[in-house]
Amino acid sequence: MLFVFLKTVLPEDATEDEIERFHAGRGGQLKPVIMVDKTLDELGSFDELVTESQQMGADWQIVIIAGLDGRNGQAPTSEQAEEPLNSMVKAVEVGSDLSKFIAFDREGNPIRFG
Predict the structure, then answer these.
(1) How many domains does the chain have?
(2) pLDDT score recorded for residue 12
(3) Which end of the chain has the least Cβ crowding within 10 Å, N or C?
(4) Which domain holds residue 19?
């Protein structure tokens, strides 16, 4: 499983309206703050994932998640997960459609992009 944790930030060139919406909790730009891969054996509960991210010092509001296929009954290695994780980060950075990912807020509520 691939996880990219995102923080909402105010863009440098934000308009007054964007600033107002951001401070009301309804806007901003997504910025990746941490990425991690986990095998199903390493994956615990969502609460454990949140706790682990806090221990790493990650301040985030949304996590996007994707699965990565293994081969011949073997889970992919962290090295094999690196390129797909980087692709997820790039998708966020360039503003690509994120609806292909599963997303949750910090409380575990599903987020829908689109």
Answers:
(1) 1
(2) 86
(3) C
(4) 2-111
